[in-house]
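Q: Got a minute? One more chain.
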Amino acid sequence: MSILDSKIPEGPLAEKWNKHKAGIKVVSPANKRKLEVIVVGTGLGGASAAASLAELGYKVKAFCYQDSPRRAHSIAAQGGINAAKNYQNDNDSVFRLFYDTIKGGDYRAREANVYRLAEVSPNIIDQCVAQGVPFGREYGGLLANRSFGGVLVSRTFYARGQTGQQLLLGAYQALNRQIAKGNVEMFSRHEMLDVVKIDGKARGIIARDLVSGEVKRFGAHAVVVATGGYGNVFFLSTNAMGSNGSAAWQCYKKGAFFANPCFVQIHPTCIPVHGDQQSKLTLMSESLRNDGRVWVPKKKEDAEKLRKGEIGANDIPDEDRDFYLERRYPSYGNLVPRDVASRAAKERCDAGFGVNAEGKAVYLDFKYSIERLGKKVIEARYGNLFQMYEKITDVDPYKEPMMIYPAIHYSMGGTWVDYNLMTSVPGLYSIGEANFSDHGANRLGASALMQGLADGYFVLPYTIGDYLADEIMTPTVDTNAPEFDEAEKSVTARIEKLYNIKGSKPVDYFHKKLGHVMWNYVGMSRNEEGLKKAVQMIREIREEFWKDVKIPGELDNLNPELEKAGRVADFFDIGELMAMDALDRKESCGGHFREESVTDDGEAKRNDDKFTYVSCWEYKGESQEPVLHKEDLVFENVKLTQRSYK
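A: Always. Here it is, folded:
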């Protein structure tokens, strides 16, 4: 029998959220002032949640490991944010956004959560416009929209190629306003290393001051984790160097189930790897696929000449170019979802049609849109992205096609949460990319910003009150309690153990080894033999790490290598669970592509009879096998069909 209660409301899909809000408890303004909430992470989810909760009257402590909330990785998002406004009068609707998201996620997400996301999406745009976010506008002054992968309408609001930055500045302003009013206490350069439970409820965190090295205790009536995803387990990804999964992993080790860990997103539009000394990859916005056409040569001999540098892309005439996305998926063309576009690029490169020296790149060409619209129009839409590409590659994309290749991007898996965004630990919430709830097996483009702001502005502020209404008589949490003592001792002991290994190899040596294993066996394509091999190899690298890692610097001081070591130690455990989850899911769906489960024409093949569930893993202790629980997914409003974008 499942021990999971998703708390999905009864009733028609379109009425669930309003009925739920009407039925849950509310905390009065006077009582909100008695209650403290910790928010870990200050990206779009964390900043919007902290600002909203403080505006309501709660006392908030906010934490980020960066020197400023403005450095959260949300700032790197480029292309836009979805909302069902139907400004283009192209027959968009809340239901269409809901359906596109469910279908894009290959029918592996909860209907109720996804519909709520679509339902609150229009409010996000109004909120951000009121904050002064400079969205792109049409000639007449109305907000502009662009299209994105996996949909047939234009619903993506954008601020050139820097939408994440502008949205984060809006949330940051709201957060700063509450800091100035004294409602939010901000702790920058502090990293959460453990969550503290008292009587089974989350009552605080242990955090390390990254400047002084001091380990500190912080208490609260509830804890919200908004720390993003775990894509950096692959070492090379589009994530910021500091992005990590450690906060969510500590929640898992304290009883919060980890859901769908094998679901990670491969983004098709990334600048290809160059050499073996890179530390991260650079994303080129999916919005570029609106006006750029993806192609490789039709002839292998042309591809070979390109790889050798004997000819350039512009030397190949149109009739010798294979616009393979348009050929294979005529309905959607270059705007197929990310997982579909990524696999198609890999298939062409594996077949010998790759165009860079390593054979791991395809072209994204703007020649045709420049001829159709003029350079000035393309420059207005994507100028900063083109500039970024030229700075990195020394190639002018106005004159030559961009080279792109798939790369690890987003984590669909994460901490399991119910409809209220609470984990399986009472009082512990998870929002944004840190949880699993809205994207299924593949996130549609421009939906990450939507989910982070939806959770922070329009969902959590309602649902957290349902829990905190029963906590108004709970006194201020005593951080001298034995549970805090035990948690701090455990954190300190782990830090000292890492530091005192005094091995011979730096942290990055082990992280790179892990990344190679993850990409080769748990990456774009997976099979049973490779996944079993990955589990064994990860265990061997982890064992070597704990014997031979070298951490220079001081223990009780600023020490970035010590920070990194703790995060990489967690990545070994996360990577192993990802491989185990991928082994269990003997089907292909979204970004999880099992070579044993493929249609006749090479597409992902789901198995709805056996795998229409959320994989929820329960921690059972160090060196113990985790236990798998299953939350069955029930579809009452959409018909499960094999995805087709043809």
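A: The chain has a mean pLDDT of 96.
Q: Perfect, thanks.
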